[in-house]
C-alpha cells in the first residue's frame, strides 16, 4: 500500500486510536494504576506526565503488553486490544524504552537489521527500513561502527529509530531524551515531529515540562495511579484555575508540591 | 514471524556477539583447555606415567654403605610406587636432613638404613631400618610398606623369609621358643627354594618351559603368592597410553567447565533484561517462547563448540582416542550440552540479578562436579547410602557415566549403560526446560 493509500485508510479510521478504560494494575498489595482512563487520538503526540510513582511506566507497560493480568479494557482502532497475549497486536506498537536498549558490540546497522527482523519487517523491505532508521538517527556515516563507540546522544537517536523500524501505528516513548545534549535533543524533537507528520501516533512520557509543552498536542496528567486531567496546555491551565501559568505550574497545582520518592 | 525463525535470529545475534568479544571468547575457550592440561598432566605423570599407580616420595639414607644396603636401596628404586630420593648419582643426604624434609612435608617418608644392615642380613637378624613418617598419611604408609617388603626380598636375594616371618610372629606376641620354631621351619622352606634357584634338577618340573633360575624374581614372589588366573577385560580399542585418571580428568574437566561456560551464556538473558533489550523484544511481534528458545539454541551451539575444542585438544595432547566413535561422541556431546544449557537457563530465569545467578551456579556446579566424579573417581570413596543417592542425583554423575563409558570402557551409545546415562540427562532437559519456561513466563513476560 502506498503512502497516499495508507493516509486514506487512516483518514477513514476512527479518530481514537487507543482507548484505555478503567485500567487497574497492582504489584501485590500496592496499587500502581487505579482505574485509569485515557484516549489517544490518531496522529497526535500525547504527553503523559506525573510525579514519580504516579503509574506512568506501569500504564505504558500494560499498553505495550509487558504486563498482563490487569483489570479494565483496552481498545485499539475500535477493536479489543490484548498485546500481552497477541503477537499481531504488538506489531502495531513500537517501544522506545527509557534504557538504551541496544547491543553495544553490534554496529548501528546490525542493531537495526536485527530488530527489523524481530519486529517482522519482511526480508525484501528490511534494507530500506534499516536505511530509513539510519537516516532518522542521523547515523548514516557511522552505520558500521559499534554502538559502544557512540556518544549518549547518538545512542538515544538510535534507540528511537529502532522503535519506529517497522512503522508502528502507535509509538510509546518512555523518557527518550534522558541525558542527551541540546543538539541531540533537538534532533530527536525534529524526528518526533517528522513521525507525527507521517501520521504516527505518539505517547510521550517525560519529566521535562518544556519538552512536553513544545512537542505534545495534548497532555494527560497522572497522579496516584489515576489520570487526573487531559487536554491541551491551555485547557489544563484553565482547569487548574491558573490560565496564565506554564505547564510546570499547572502540573504542581494538579499533583501537589510534596516530594515523591516512589519508584 | 514464526517461532523457529525468531529463535534462529536471536541465536544468530547472540553468536555474533559471542564471537565479537574476542577476549571473552578466548578466555571462555582457553580456560577449560588450561584446566584439562593441568589436570591431565597431573594425572598422567604424577600417577606413575602409564602404570596408573600413585608415586610416594621417599628419601633414603644409607648409613651402612654395604653391598646389601646398596641392593636394598636399588630394590626400593625398582618399586613403581616409590619415587626414591636422592636419585641415583645425586649427593646423599644425612639422616637429620631427611627427617626435616618429612617434617616440612617435602617428603612423604624417609627410610634410614642403619649401620650394620648388611651384617644383620647375613646373620639372619632383624636389620636396623627406621621409617620416618607422618602418621596421618596412611595411604602412602601402606605403599611404603609394600615397597620395603619387595626391596628387602631383593637385598637378601630371597633368603629373608625365616627372619621376616620370625619377626612378624614376635610382634604378634609369640614367645622366643615359638619364634625359633617358626624360623627353623621357614629355613627348611628357604633351603628348598635356594636349591631350586640354584638349578637343582631334582626340583625342576619335567614340563617346565624355562630353566628354574631364568627370570626368577624373589622380590615379586609375594605379589603372586595367591594363585589366581588374571582375566584382562581391557577393551582392545583403548589407547595404550590412556590411564584411568587421565580419562577421568579430561572427561571431568570437560563436563565441569561446560557448565561454567554455558552459565555465562545463560546469564545474557538477565543482561538483556537489565539493558532493556528484553522489553523491546517482548514488545516485538515475535512469539515470546522464541526468546527462550533462541537463548537455548545459542547456549547449545557454544557448548558444542567448547566440547569440540576440548576433545580435539585432549586427542592432540593426550591421545585419549576420543574420535574413535564419532556418532557416540556427538550423541554424548549434544546430550550434555543440552543438559548443561537447561541447567543454566533454569538458574538464569530464577535469579534476580546476574550476580545471584553466578553465585548460585558456581556453588551448585562445584558441588555437583565433586559429587559427580569430575575431580576424582567418586566410586573409590566409601560413601554412606544417602551420599550415594545424592551422588546419583547429580547431573554431572550421569554426564561422567556417559563420557567415561565411552573413553575408558569404549562403549557405544547403544550400550545400556550409556543409554541410561543419556536418558537421565534428556529427562533433566525436559523437566528443567519446562520449569524454566514457567518461571520465564511468570517473571519476565508479565504472565
Number of strands of chain B: 4
Order of helices and strands of chain B: HHEHEHEHEHHHHHHHHHHHH
Architecture per CATH nomenclature, i.e. the level-2 architecture of the largest domain in chain A = 3-Layer(aba) Sandwich
What general form of chain A does the structure show? globular
From the N-terminal CA to the C-terminal CA of chain A, the straight-line distance is 43 Å
| Computed structural class of chain B | mainly alpha
Mean pLDDT of chain B: 85
In CATH, what is the homologous superfamily of the largest domain in chain A?
A: P-loop containing nucleotide triphosphate hydrolases
Given helix and strand content, the structural type of chain A is: alpha/beta
Major sheet strand order of chain B: 2-1-3-4
Structure description:
The complex is a heterodimer of chains A (263) and B (447). Chain A has 263 residues and is of the alpha/beta class. Chain A has two domains: 16-92 and 169-178 and 201-257, Rossmann fold (3-Layer(aba) Sandwich), CATH 3.40.50; 99-168, no CATH class. Helices cover 37% and strands 24% of the residues of chain A. Chain A has helices spanning 3-12, 56-64, 87-90, 108-118, 126-137, 152-163, 182-197, 209-215, 233-239, 247-255; strands spanning 16-27, 30-41, 45-49, 71-76, 79-80, 93-96, 170-174, 201-205, 218-223, 226-231. In chain A, strand 4 (71-76) and strand 5 (79-80) form a beta hairpin. The longest helix of chain A is centred in the last third of the chain and has 16 residues, at 182-197. Chain A starts with a helix and ends in an 8-residue tail after the last helix. Chain B is mainly alpha-helical and 447 residues long. Helices cover 64% and strands 5% of the residues of chain B. Chain B has a four-stranded mixed sheet, with helices on both faces. In chain B, helix 9 (244-266) packs antiparallel against helix 14 (354-372) and helix 9 (244-266) packs across helix 16 (395-407). The model of chain B has no long low-confidence stretch (mean pLDDT 85). The chains are: A alpha/beta (263), B mainly alpha (447). At the A-B interface, helix 3, strand 6 and helix 4 of A face helix 1 and helix 11 of B.
